[in-house]
Amino acid sequence: MKIKKGIFITATDTGVGKTIATLVLATLLKAKGFDVGIMKPVQCGGKDAHFLKTSLNLSDPDDLINPFYAPEPLSPHLAFRRAKITIDQHKIIDAYQELQKRHDIVLVEGAGGLMVPIREDYLVSDLISDLDLEAVIVSRLGLGTINHSLLTIHQMKNLGIKIRGIIFSTLNSKKPGLPEQTNPDVIKKISGVDVLGIIPYFKKTSSQEIMRTCSNTIDLKTLLKAQASPKNNHYEKLDKKYLWHPFTQMSDWLIEEQLVIDEAKGCHLKDTSGNTYIDGVSSLWVNVHGHRHRDIDQAIRDQINKVSHSTLLGLSNVPAVQLAKELVALAPKGLRKVFYSDNGSTAVEVAIKMAFQFWQNKKKLKKQKIVYLEHSYHGDTLGAVSVGGIDVFHKIYRPLTFEAVKWPSPFYRKGNWQSLEEFCQEYLKNAKYFLENNHKILAAFVVEPMIQAAAGMLVWPKGILKSLCELCRRYDVLLICDEVATGFGRTGKMFACEHEGVKPDFLCVAKGITGGYLPLAATLTTQKVFDGFLFEYKDLKTFFHGHTYTGNPLACAAALANIKVFKKERTLYNLAPKIKFLAEGLKRFYTLACVCEVRQLGFMVGIELVSDRVTGEPFALEKKIGIRVCQELRKHGVLLRPLGQVIVLMPPLAIKKDDLETLIKETYEAIKKITG
Ligand SMILES: Cc1ncc(COP(=O)(O)O)c(C=O)c1O
What we know:
Layout: E1 5-11, H1 18-31, E2 36-39, E3 42-44, H2 48-55, H3 62-65, E4 68-70, H4 76-82, H5 89-102, E5 105-109, E6 117-119, E7 122-123, H6 124-131, E8 134-140, H7 145-158, E9 163-169, H8 178-191, E10 195-199, H9 207-214, H10 220-225, H11 234-242, H12 250-255, E11 261-265, E12 268-271, E13 276-279, H13 282-285, H14 294-304, H15 318-330, E14 335-341, H16 344-361, E15 369-373, H17 382-386, H18 391-394, E16 405-407, H19 420-438, E17 442-447, E18 451-452, E19 458-459, H20 464-474, E20 478-482, E21 506-509, E22 521-526, H21 527-531, H22 553-568, H23 571-587, E23 595-601, E24 604-609, H24 625-635, E25 638-639, E26 646-649, H25 657-675
Parallel strand pairs: 1-5, 1-8, 2-5, 3-4, 8-9, 9-10, 13-25, 15-16, 15-17, 17-20, 20-21
Antiparallel strand pairs: 6-7, 11-12, 12-13, 14-22, 18-19, 21-22, 23-24, 24-26
């Protein structure tokens, strides 16, 4: 059986027999016919790596087996600092991946215990997570074992590290006493972790001796059991029985094979059958730094230990305050106040209601109308639908909505009868005329700045947003920029408004605000708008709006961590070359006869498919072309969700270049196959 996956061997402490346990497991696995590789990524003093290599007759180069060596037997952070070596985990990960290619299974022996610092900012537990490995714990038998073992297990569970089992080592030749005899059972009972067995005390560690003493006592079946992932459609059945999915024709859903996601790591999602996929649309445009990002995970855990929810109605909470300060610092200048809600639609509803009431409070009673753009999408609640311009989604609900004013989209399609310059001039001339003549009844103009995402990634021509903003200012119409999709780096800047130095009256953010972890939204506005609501209590000019989970501390803690990671990992700086790489890779799509336009702004991409490029004729709806391309992609380990006949790429900003390359390549191939 080819397993092609590693197991990390960690321990409850240093000197508890990790190396011997690694040798025992490797020897037993070899005897079962597995080609076993070994890795000791970080070694401080001693010859463990060499000992394992020679004992197991391995021919891998030393720098793969042990990429980092420091001569002094100290904690790695200290030993390597004193040896003037900086440990780079990427080198370890690369070496591991190479070993993985060479062997059926690779045992990776840690350094000391789980929480040992490899660098001051990087622990053994971080390495286990980065290698995405399950772990075996080695614990010594004797007094104190229960406490050490349970602490290690508890922390691993806390960190989301899967435990394959615990193995006990005997460190002296004394006859086992009561603790040695009873510890394993107690630990299993309390923690639920499988016991893989007890390694006896060895005078010499020959493979014959290991086989003689351990082949019947060490439980390899349990060690290997999670490796195999049989097709698991239990949850798929339950899903079909109980769930109703959003934006989904359930008659199709019920008869087609569906994926149930069970886990994720970085930019990959894993289904219940163990298949992994590149998360090509950031789990619907929300994920930023990858799934299970250590800092965000930890921030949420830390917050859980304080308070998970308390209301903002009549009270405040620490993360909500801290986040408001950060958002104001991050947002375009002039936005000073933060109003929280739970999702993109409500962020827009808040802005619309605030804009409306602002003029009412000011006694400009006629300023009531909201202008929105053709093709716009601002969410699915009725207020957001009222300013929605996509007929397929919105038309049926029109009788339920308020009347708003639709204005043409600034999207310029290549091949338009006008030149781009003429189009823009005319667009702005008309907008000026419209605002000049109607501003007395207009409360606000709501836009998705720079790109209309849900309409199929319709990118605006340069300069329109800035000019529209100036016109709104000139004619006293409040500008609402809905950055629910574009915010938090998607377009290459933190906010799309920054592309044109625009300072709106309202900025709506959601989706990426928590890095894709928890539902949270914010509507930012100016001091002027805020002051427009300051009256006497009895005047009843309060902003009468608020959701139960507004300013939820857990979500705010996640958002704070998300913003910190942007700075710590220089996310936007590192994104720039990836945006270029993506742009390069997308050029090839024009060689496909069915691709009529590839639109990109930063990490937001729409590839529009048509049945006839000359006439622009779309594919017949019943062909479900977008859906079929995405279904094909699943077979190749990529998850996308189309917008009708537009294939959307919107990967997490943290995606690695090789995954980005795979995403582009597989998308190309899938379109070619399905439309060819
Ligand atoms: C621009 C824009 N506004 C609002 C929304 C609605 O956000 P939510 O689904 O969180 O309500 C979306 C969702 O895609 C969006 O793209």
